[in-house]
């Protein structure tokens, strides 16, 4: 925004701010949708469908709403509260842990869900890596 204001004036700085807000909002919404959809499936895969309570299971109107709310309250709101740059070190650590969790969940599903990946070796051979 500062670069846009310096280069093109205050109107472009406001436009850049609106673009940032819309992009960041889309990213936050996609993370919430991803976590609320993946966490119940992950729990049911690890612990078994019968061992996961219905309130946190894969039901769209129970489990997904619970996990979306928990993710929002536990991860997203604390990340948006700090006002000093020094207080962001803990938020950055939290973001790093979240990214690692996301990657581990994807790897776990790749290797365990045979309906998603029937043959691991064949999937690796057929992958388009640099497309």
From TrEMBL:
Predominantly, its location class is: membrane
Record InterPro entries: AA_transpt_TM (IPR013057)
Organism domain of life: Eukaryota
* Membrane-spanning intervals of the chain: 12-34, 64-81, 88-111
Q: Ranges for the Amino acid transporter transmembrane domain? A: 2-115
Q: Which residues form the signal peptide?
A: none
UniProt GO cellular component terms? membrane
Question: What would be an example GO MF term here?
Answer: L-amino acid transmembrane transporter activity
Provide the membrane topology annotation. Multi-pass membrane protein
Keywords, in A-Z order: Membrane, Transmembrane, Transmembrane helix
Subcellular location field: Membrane
- PANTHER family on file: AMINO ACID TRANSPORTER, AMINO ACID TRANSPORTER PROTEIN
**Any idea what this protein is called?**
Amino acid transporter transmembrane domain-containing protein
Q: Which organism is it from?
A: Euplotes harpa
Taxonomy, top ranks, is: Eukaryota, Sar, Alveolata, Ciliophora, Intramacronucleata
